[in-house]
Amino acid sequence: MIELTNPRAFVLYTPQDNQYIYYNEERCNQNFPPMSTFKIPNSIISLETGAIADETITVSYDSQKYPSEDWWPPQWKQENNLRSALKYSVVWLAT
User: Annotated catalytic residue: which of 36, 43, 63, 84?
Assistant: First the structure.
């Protein structure tokens, strides 16, 4: 049997019954950052609101705020800008 290091979870809500059906309920009840789902909208919002002046502005990596994981690629543990963040899927910059 294969043991997953990142177990999956799923929640199905049935409005007609007002019922939730869980796969791996314990994990479903844990909080996780949105990861890749918000990279593009967050990038656009950052540019439109002026939080980041343009796609070339460098943002320093803060290891205290975003402690690295063993599986992180090296590009995540360094300064990035919006271009490199999208290219290398740098999660911490988009959260």
Answer: 36
Question: Are 22 and 73 contacting, i.e. CB atoms less than 8 angstroms apart?
Answer: no
Q: Whole-angstrom Cα distance, residue 57 to residue 68?
A: 22
Cβ atoms of 84 and 90 closer than 8 Å? yes
Token pair, residue 47, equals: 């540019």
Nearest Cα to Cα of residue 56 among 86, 21, 95 = 86
Tell me the CB-side half-sphere exposure of residue 3, using CA atoms within 13 A: 1
Which stretches within 1-95 are classed as H helix? Answer: 25-28, 39-49, 82-87, 91-94
Active site residue 63: no
Mean pLDDT, consecutive 10-residue stretches, the chain (95 aa), reads 71 96 93 78 90 91 93 95 91 77
Residue 93: name the closest of 71, 68, 60 by CA.
60
